[in-house]
Amino acid sequence: MKPDEHTLSRSVEDYLKAVYALTEGGDPASTSALADHLGVQPASVTGMVKRLAEDGWVEHAPYRGVRLTPSGRTQALRVIRRHRILETYLVERLGYTWDDVHAEAERLEHAASDDLIDRMAAHLEDPSHDPHGAPIPTRAGEIEPLALGTLAEAAAGERVEIRAVRDEDAAELRHLEAVGLVPGTTVTVVDVTGPDGGVTVDIGGEPGAASRERVRSALARRIYVRDVDA
Ligand SMILES: [Zn+2]
After folding, report:
1. Residue 208 CA to ligand 1 centre (angstroms)
2. Which residues of the chain have pLDDT under 50?
3. For residue 42, how far is its CA from the centre of ligand 1 (angstroms)?
4. Which of 29, 57, 62, 172 could make a disulfide contact with 72, Cβ separation 3.0–4.6 Å?
């Protein structure tokens, strides 16, 4: 029998969220990628994945990787909804800044009931995206598909709009805000060469008035963009 869906442990919820994040592009997640993502030893991942498969949350094909089952995906999206509504509420209603909410939401997502989250969502008039631009799953478990590339994949001369940024690193978020690399901003890619494979962009629409910024490649891979001319 499956454990009661309301009493999943924090670590089960974190694993399902991690598998969701790593398989969003369509490929299964390797146990080493999961270990990396969760900051734990590969051996402990192997044991946990076995338990999750026995409970019906994931499918694990040896040497191929881990995927969520439909019920695992439903659970992952519930946790992601709680996380993203909490972040939005903290910013919109309690005056938190966008670099200050992720750690708080990481804790609260495991404690808040779905009822509390739905009330917060109603208070916010059902927001579609969190403060970092990430889509918020609906109450029914639907989520906008991730059809975005990253700034690291953009070509020279392309104009792209920043749609979302990864939210884990507070210092990085403060830097992005300080230089104006925030969701809704359009940038022009100046060049994509350089020793670290980084990207140089002009921020701001007006020719001549743009500020030029060098974005190192690790950061460019964490900025999701849409081609505005496509
Ligand atoms: Zn977050």
Report:
1. 35
2. 1-5
3. 24
4. 57
Ligand 1 centroid–CA 123 distance in Å is: 20
Q: Which residue has the tokens 């969760």?
A: 38
Inside any domain, residue 195: yes
How many whole angstroms from its chain centre is CA 160? Answer: 19
Q: Name the β-bridge partners of 203.
A: 187, 211
CA of 63 relative to ligand 1 center, distance in Å? 31
- Using the CB atoms, write b or e for 45-65: b if 16+ within 10 Å: beebbeebbebebbbbeeeeb
- Measure 84 CA to ligand 1 centroid, in angstroms: 7
Within a domain: residue 12? yes
Last residue within a domain, chosen from 21, 39, 68: 68
Distance CA 17, CA 210 (A): 38
Q: Which of 198, 196, 200 is nearest to 188 (CA)?
A: 200
Let me know if residue 201 belongs to a domain.
Answer: yes
Q: Token pair for residue 100?
A: 């200050």
pTM of the full structure: 0.88
Residue ranges making up the domain that contains 26: 5-68
- Kindly give the distance from the C-alpha atom of residue 101 to the centroid of ligand 1, in angstroms, as a whole number: 7
pLDDT per residue over 74-84, tens digit each?
Answer: 999 999 999 99
Angle, alpha carbons 64-67-73 (nearest 5°): 175
In this structure, what CATH number is given to the domain that contains residue 52? 1.10.10.10
